Amino acid sequence: MNKVRFMAELERLLRGLPSNEREDALNYYREYIEDAGFSEIDDVTDKLGTPRQVARSILGESVDKHVEVQKEKSNVKNNASIIWRLILYICAAPIAIPLVVVAVALFVAFTTVIFAVEVAMIITGAAMVFAGCACIIVLFWSLTTPQLLIVVGAILILIPFGILWCIGFYKLGGLVIRMIASLAKKIFVREGR
User: Fold this and answer.
1) For residue 154, what are the CA distances in angstroms to 98, 143, 157, 169?
2) Helix-strand-coil split of the chain, %, nearest 5
3) What is d(CA 38, CA 92) in angstroms, rounded to the nearest whole number?
4) What pTM did the predictor assign?
5) In Å, what is the CA distance from 108 to each residue of 67, 102, 111, 179?
6) What is the pLDDT of residues 89-108, one digit of tens each?
7) Which carries the bigger pLDDT value, residue 20 or residue 153?
8) Residue 130 CB coordination number (10 Å)
9) Euclidean distance between CA atoms 140 and 128, whole angstroms
10) How far is 141 from 60, CA to CA, in rounded Å?
């Protein structure tokens, strides 16, 4: 393989290297070939090896160099990163703590309001049932037929509607509590730690 084909094949095999390392390696082998005095038709693989062998050697050295650099950087970087995080946590504490307290207070207030509305709705349904039962007593004091029909209608509306109202808001309350618990889990519990 002549030097032109050798260099073209070597350049193709070194595509994965960073450009500066690739150029350094290619320049090194160009100079080496020129200094060795190969002609245009001489086979350079006898002295250098195949382009694949040379590329493996260059890539292996590059990987070793990068591993060493990363080891050096990681120790310094990890230590610096820990220090910077500590500084940021200390600086953020005066702001973060009140924000967390406010977020928790808002969540508790929201949950309390939802709970109070649910209880009020269930009590409203129970009051309708109670009013319907009270109308049964009034039924005995009704003097005229229209009064009797109004009281019977009130009984037939208030008791079933009150029961359905209580059951509906009880079920809705359970659903809302599950949604709030899910929301609280997403906000306050970090998974994977």
Assistant:
1) 54, 16, 5, 21
2) 85, 0, 15
3) 67
4) 0.46
5) 51, 10, 5, 14
6) 666 567 767 877 888 899 88
7) 153
8) 14
9) 19
10) 104
